[in-house]
Amino acid sequence: MALYKDDRYLVKTDEDAFDFLHRPADTAPFSGIYRCEGCRREVASNEGDPLPPQNHHQHDEALGDILWRLVVYADHDPK
Ligand SMILES: [Zn+2]
Fold first, then answer.
1. What is the pLDDT along the chain (79 residues), one digit of tens a residue?
2. How far apart are CA 68 and CA 36, in angstroms?
3. How far is the CA of 70 from the centre of ligand 1 (A)?
4. Is residue 9 part of a domain?
5. Most exposed among 12, 13, 37, 57, judged by the fewest C-beta atoms under 10 Å?
6. Does a structural domain hold residue 25?
7. Distance (Å, rounded) from C-alpha 2 to C-alpha 25?
């Protein structure tokens, strides 16, 4: 589970970006923290870079395919 200390720096949102599942090595749509839906491992990826590949981490096959979900993204254009 992603952690934070000061909630002034995070905002809850219902944006669709958090609803999509991405396959290993897909292009990261945002810079941020992604979580494997099967084993809950979290990684940081930069926008435009490939998400971690299939062999990135120990992932029990019983947990299903590795699928990455965006859980927090960095705001590059604060208003
Ligand atoms: Zn995993």
1. 999 999 999 999 999 999 999 999 999 999 999 999 999 999 999 999 999 998 888 999 999 999 999 999 999 888 8
2. 5
3. 14
4. no
5. 12
6. yes
7. 21
CA 44 to ligand 1 centroid distance, Å: 14
Distance from residue 21's CA to the centre of ligand 1 (Å) = 13
In a domain, 78, yes or no: no
How many angstroms separate the CA atoms of 20 and 44, rounded? 16
Type of residue numbered 45 = S
Please state, in angstroms and as integers, the Cα–Cα distance from residue 12 to each residue in 23, 33, 52, 53, following that order: 25, 15, 26, 29
Token pair of 44, please? 């940081």
Q: For residue 66, give its domain range.
A: 19-73
